[in-house]
Amino acid sequence: MKRIGIAGAGLMGRMLGFACLNAGFHVTLIDRDPINSKASCGFAGAGLLAPWCEAEKYDQAHFEMACASLNLWPDWVRSIGIPIFFQQTGSVFVSHQQDWPELERITQALAQKLGSRWVPQWRTGSSWQALEPECAKKFDRALYFPEEGQVEAWDLMPALAKILNEKATWIAKRPILAIAPGVIYTERNTFKFDHVVDCRGLGAAPDLPHLRGVRGELVALHAPEVRLNRPLRLAHPRFPLYIAPRPDHIFLVGASQLESESMAPIALRSALELLSAAYSIHPGFAESHIVNSSVHCRPAFADNRPKIFSQPGLTRINGLYRHGFLLSPLLAQETVRILNGQGMMFPELLIKEECCEGNEPGKMYPNLPVSNPSPT
Question: Which domains does the chain have, with CATH numbers?
Answer without folding.
Answer: 3-44+154-208+302-364 (3.50.50.60), 91-146+212-300 (3.30.9.10)
